[in-house]
Each structure stands twice: as structure tokens, then as C-alpha cells.
Amino acid sequence: xxxxxxxxxxxxxxxxxxxxxxxxxxxxxxxxxxxxxxxxxxxxxxxxxxxxxxxxxxxxxxxxxxxxxxxxxxxxxxxxxxxxxxxxxxxxxxxxxxxxxxxxxxxxxxxxxxxxxxxxxxxxxxxxxxxxxxxxxxxxxxxxx
Length: 145
Ligand code: SF4
Ligand code: SF4
Fold this sequence. Notes:
Shape: globular
Number of strands: 5
Strand order of the largest sheet: 1-2-5
Bound molecules: iron/sulfur cluster
Distance between the termini: 43 Å
Number of helices: 6
Largest sheet: 3 strands, mixed
Order of helices and strands: HHEEEEHHHHE
Number of domains: 1
Low-confidence stretches: none
Mean pLDDT: 94
């Protein structure tokens, strides 16, 4: 019987820091701006992406210092898994937390970093503008249905 890979046999809390980092598929969908409904507290994604994203290769241009530059940039931590429901449904951390499999285009499955972009599963296939291109008031116009 084939041995299970680390994301199948370990919980998020059991992963090493390197395993935890490698679990991120690089989709950057979490870099889309979100709007929270005041009444239902439901989180809605928009097609507005953070201006620090490299729009060609889909990576954060200020990754090490991101939370200091962008106050609403969230650094995911294993101890916060209970709050992961706001992450995109395809997010690896959410999938593992919910006991699901990684998608076939995940870089850990394909062995290719760019497979998420090729599968049109990254933010590059979703975003329309950056947060520097619009006003705060216009954000609501970009909510994704
Ligand atoms: S949505 Fe999840 S898998 Fe995609 S970049 Fe963000 S943390 Fe990584
Ligand atoms: S600072 Fe970087 S990681 Fe954070 S939302 Fe912006 S592009 Fe994404």
C-alpha cells in the first residue's frame, strides 16, 4: 500500500513550518478584497486585488513584510483554523481543515509551481482591478456573485 503524503496523514497543527508553507498553492485568491455584510457577517469576495500582487507571476511582492504594509493582509496560522471558513473554497488550508483532498492542479500534486495558474485557478483569472485603481466607495461595485 502506498504511503500517504504529509497533507493526508497530518493535521494542519501537526505540520512542520516548511510543510505548512508548501501547502499554499499560490493562487492568491485570498489577496482579493472582501466585503463583510454588517448584518449577516457573511464575507463576500470582490474582483479587486491587492496592489502588492505581481500580476504576471502571481506572488506577493512584499511577502516578508506584508502584514506591516497592508493592515488587512492576514497571516494564516494553524491555531486559527476555526476561522478558515472565510477563505476561498479552493484554498488548501480550508480543504485540509475540512478533511478534503487537494485539487489535481495543486503544485504539491503536480510538482509544478505554475500549475495553479495554468489551471486558471489563481487570482489572475479572476481579478479586474487593484485596490489602488478604485475608491473605497467603489469596492461594493466589484462584489462577486
Ligand atoms: S487562498 Fe489559500 S492556498 Fe491560495 S494563496 Fe491564499 S492561503 Fe494560499
Ligand atoms: S500584501 Fe501580499 S499577501 Fe497580503 S493581500 Fe497583498 S499581495 Fe496578498
